[in-house]
Write a structure and sequence with these properties.
By secondary structure, the chain is of the alpha/beta class. The protein has helices at residues 2-18, 22-39, 41-54, 60-84, 89-94, 101-109, 124-134, 148-158, 171-180, 213-221, 256-274, 292-296, and strands spanning 96-99, 114-118, 138-142, 164-167, 184-188, 198-203, 206-211, 225-232, 238-242.
Length: 320
């Protein structure tokens, strides 16, 4: 029953926002986020606790303002994604400014494929859609949603401009094949991981279980790793930024996968520190103590399925 209600609500909102101007969609999204901030005590508490640990020198009121702005941002993200994906390709591109385009072109010229990394920050979903139009489609790694109808709806949005979605089972083999063909693969590196490929790196000075797949693929294939980030601009526009490729540690470096993962995480942390209201503080990124009740609490986003524990069939050394 819950799945049908979720799907009906999202489908109705998707139909509504198609007929509305972007300015109204943005305001409605921020209102939706504010509503969740007020009623979702569990995730508000998680966000405030995470912010206190990450920014101990900020006042309680400063952290509260960041948390409130963060909820509003993610409400806006949800509604603007539904609106953005309904626009024509020409209209989508007209809403985007680019920075670092030459870094992508240079990486493409190397012929080893590209690994893009980012987090649940800014407007990453819109960036993937616009990227497919500006450059060429990429494959994005993702977790399937628990709700099968919402899963299909989101996958339809993500693939609408030619991108492909790769799910955890068999993802490493698929990524290796795509990179060998000179194509691009996008990976989010800021989710708590429980699968065999998880390693711990520092994020805001605290150990966080992080996927090692990105670094392991880069070391194995020599594909450059380019962090990318999407920022809001005035008038409902977006600035898509492609950072310099992350420098890989020497192949013979001790614990090279962890070092590479730390370097990528450091780039993400730099942007989160500059714009904390754009990152998903309501996610339990650090799990110093297990709390099943918090992990299962419903919130603004539909729940995703748990990690699939693999045995590293591709031989990347993940999980060693």
């Amino acid at each position: 029953m819950r799945h049908q209600v979720e799907y009906a609500a999202v489908s109705s909102i998707a139909l509504m926002v198609r007929a509305l101007p972007l300015s109204m969609v943005r305001r409605l999204g921020e209102t939706l986020g504010l509503a969740f901030y007020l009623v979702d005590r569990v995730h508000r508490r998680i966000a405030l606790a995470n912010l206190e640990a990450a920014f101990p020198k900020k006042s309680k009121e400063e952290r509260r303002v960041i948390a409130k702005s963060m909820f509003q941002h993610f409400g806006r993200l949800l509604l603007e994604l539904l609106k953005f994906s309904s626009l024509s390709e020409e209209r989508q591109m007209a809403l985007v400014d680019w920075e670092g385009e030459e870094r992508v072109r240079l990486a493409q010229a190397h012929g080893k494929g590209i690994l893009f990394c980012t987090g649940h920050f800014g407007f990453w979903e819109q960036q993937a859609l616009a990227h497919a139009l500006k450059f060429e489609p990429m494959a994005v790694m993702a977790r399937p949603l628990d709700n099968p109808k919402l899963h299909d709806l989101l996958e339809g949005i993500r693939t609408s401009n030619g991108n492909e979605v790769v799910y955890r089972r068999g993802a490493v083999r698929k990524a290796l094949r795509l990179l060998a063909e000179g194509k691009a693969v996008g990976i989010l590196i800021d989710q708590h991981m429980t699968s065999a490929d998880a390693i711990y790196v520092d994020f805001f000075g605290r150990p966080a279980a992080t996927t090692s797949t990105l670094a392991a693929l880069a070391i194995r294939t020599g594909a450059p790793v380019i962090p990318l980030f999407a920022f809001p601009m005035a008038g409902g526009r977006y600035r898509m930024i492609y950072e310099h490729p992350v420098e890989a540690p020497p192949h013979d470096a001790e614990d090279a996968v962890r070092e590479f993962t730390q370097r990528c995480t450091d780039v993400l942390e730099m942007h989160v520190r500059r714009h904390p209201e754009l990152w998903l503080w309501m996610h339990r990124r650090w799990r110093d103590a297990p709390d099943a009740a918090l992990d299962a609490a419903p919130g603004m986003f539909p729940s995703a399925k748990a990690d699939v524990v693999s045995e590293d069939p591709a031989g990347l050394g993940i999980g060693d």
